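quick one before i forget lol
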Amino acid sequence: MTNIPPAYNQPAAYPAQAERLFPRVMDWSVLTVECATGQYSASLLSRAVEDCDAHVLNLNVVSGLALGEPSVVELRVNHRNPELVARSLERYGYTVTSVMSSAPGSDPDDDSGPDAVARRRVNELIRLLNV
């Protein structure tokens, strides 16, 4: 008899296994990074993330396993502001193609929430001061 991990032979255990692989944290950001296949290095990606006081929670290679195809990596980090992590990754030569964050109001196009109200008020004040 083969030893099959419980996640594969017990569908009811899937949520528990997902929780183990993707632990819940208060502040997180997901960044999609693209690079040449020869440029991919998990340790270098981690170093770039840790340069802005964040930690890598998950690192998944999404595509780019074939020769000549760019590697696409999805990073989940424990940092509220994905832009800081994106700038650090770009300094290391990686291309950040998308970002997402758990922080409310982290999307600059989002007009809901207290951050959006504060942003609008600051913009109005700046406009008044420039008159």
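fyi The domain at 6-104 is CATH 3.30.70.260 (Alpha-Beta Plaits).
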